[in-house]
Amino acid sequence: MPDPAPSRATSLPVGSDADLARVRRQIRQAAAGLGFGLVQQTKLVTAASELARNTLVHGGGGHVEITPLTLGEPRGLRLSFVDRGPGISDIELAMTDGYTSGGGLGLGLSGSRRLVDEFALDTEPGTGTTVTVTSWTTAIPAARPGAR
Amino acid sequence: MGVAGRRSRGKETMRVSEQEAVESTARGLGVFLERRREQIAQRWADAPLFRAVFTVSRDEAVEACKAVVDALCEVASTGRLEDIAAPGFDRVREQLGRMSGSRTRTGAGPAQIADEFAALRTPVAELLRAESAGTSVAEETESLLALTALMGTLRLVVMQTALSSGEELIARQRQQLLEVATPVISLWDGVVAVPLIGTLDSARSQIVMESLLESIVARRARYAILDITGVPTVDSLVAQHLMKTVAAARLMGAECVISGIRPAIAQTIVHLGIDLGTVLTRASLADALAYALSQQGIEVSPHAEVR
Amino acid sequence: MTPPSPGPAAAVPVLALGETLLVTLHGELHDGTAELLQQDLAERIARSGAVGVVIDISGVDMVDSFLGRVLAETAANARVLAARTVVVGMRPAVAITLVELGLTLPGLTTALDVELGLELLTRARPAAPGRRERGT
């Protein structure tokens, strides 16, 4: 049975490299505590890393809200990446695999979307961007490591 | 304010005092439970339910009983006798869950478990009656009613946990079934194989992929053979799942070979325009194994000399 | 208990094994540290004349597009400096996530562990004597 999950939302700043590492750590812990399997945890943390970096690099910094969803089954985790940056002017373009405005591999937004169950992008050029992703624990427990 | 207002105020006042009376009885029940904690726990420890769960140590059973009495005590003292979400139950929810899980595993259904909990009421009622010797019949009845309500709520809380642990059991058994259906076999030093049988839906593919990759690490397998002889149809979705597995294995440093491609499947793949890319394919598992061995410098020959 | 955050690239251990450099990455790799490492490795390869690099990521629990890029570029830099790179020890969960992310890192050579990675580099060397050795 998974640990009693943290039931309160947390807000973490996204303003530096060290912040990104901390965000990854906290989300890993939160996901594990909620009963997410190892693969799901890794997908969540990876998506979070992409989105947090976007917030830092393109959004000029911001914060992330981590909300455990524990009312009923299945349990879930919601992450909201908020910045007050320039916003995204062409959403469709930004969501295309390979598109990048910052020298990366351009998979941040579109890739993250594939790693989570729900994805919502809210942006206003000149005001800022909020990306909210949610994942739910699956009914099937994760595969046990190795054969006994 | 007219007559009607005064009348409605009167009704309200009556409702309030009724509620107060109920809460007062409930709190009285709480006090009783706290006072008789040890005795109740001792009697419960001998009840069929606790005997069935705590087979090794009666002391453990007594501790568990005390925990339940404490929880009931807390709920009673807040006056919320019929609230299954009462925080007082929180401290024992896990324990109740484990108890009903234990009963479930030995074959007891939710209804039977609830009955076993219902039977716990009797010893407490006896003690309550003995204690109420000096009080009025009305008061005694009120207390017994409160006890009945509280134990009823406990049964509901237990039914909740019994149902969800039953669900967990089903999920675990389903997982075990899926794993048994997709064993990963170590064929040779550095070579593993997965004979895929049946339809490859998204859930199964995920399990197959995870099992296979874990085996690759555990067995240090540089080659993984995915045999699809037992897969009835291969459409673009199945092909996608297979490709993802191959890609993941490749990232880890292992090469996949897909074997068991029947002529009909080959035609479907071509017809659907599925691009297998650089994935290696072989008609039979034997061919795939021969390939994997040859890549490691091992030659398989029908007339190998026996020393 | 998580260890304190690492400083510059000096925190990433780089061992010289003959003509091969062995780099061991850990789970708490900051972006800046990764980039410094990339530069540092290129310099070390040029300085030492190493012909092989093994990057051990068995301690890494997540690879995103940034780290993926660092790995790909490190290998590309090494290639220009006439050295071959092998990334070893990728965890299953990481591999599955990378595939889902769409990051297949096509130019990257990978192996299951350090030993197999070193074997691979030895086999690939043009001056390797005799027949290919059987894998253990």
What does the overall shape of chain A look like?
globular
Note the gap between the termini of chain B. 114 Å
The residue ranges of chain B in which pLDDT falls below 50 over 5 or more consecutive positions are: 1-7
Secondary structure: number of strands of chain A: 5
| Helix content percent band of chain B | 55-70%
What's the CATH C level of the largest domain in chain B? Answer: Mainly Alpha
CATH superfamily of chain A: Histidine kinase-like ATPase, C-terminal domain
Structural class of chain B: alpha/beta
Can you characterise this structure?
- The complex is a heterotrimer of chains A (148), B (307) and C (136).
- Chain A has 148 residues and is an alpha+beta fold.
- Chain A contains four helices and five strands; from the N terminus they run βααββααββ.
- In chain A, strands 1-2-3-5-4 form a five-stranded antiparallel sheet, covered by helices on one side.
- In chain A, α1 runs antiparallel to α2 and α2 packs antiparallel against α4.
- Chain A starts with 9 loop residues before the first strand and ends in a 12-residue tail after the last strand.
- The N terminus and C terminus of chain A are likely disordered.
- By secondary structure, chain B is an alpha/beta fold.
- Chain B folds into two domains: 173 residues, Globin-like, CATH 1.10.490; 111 residues, STAS domain (Transcription Regulator spoIIAA, 2-Layer Sandwich), CATH 3.30.750.24.
- In chain B, α1 packs antiparallel against α4 and α9 runs parallel beside α10.
- The N terminus of chain B is likely disordered.
- In chain C, α1 packs parallel to α2.
- Chain C is globular.
- The N and C termini of chain C lie far apart (37 Å).
- The C terminus of chain C is likely disordered.
- The interface between B and C is medium-sized, with 23 and 23 residues.
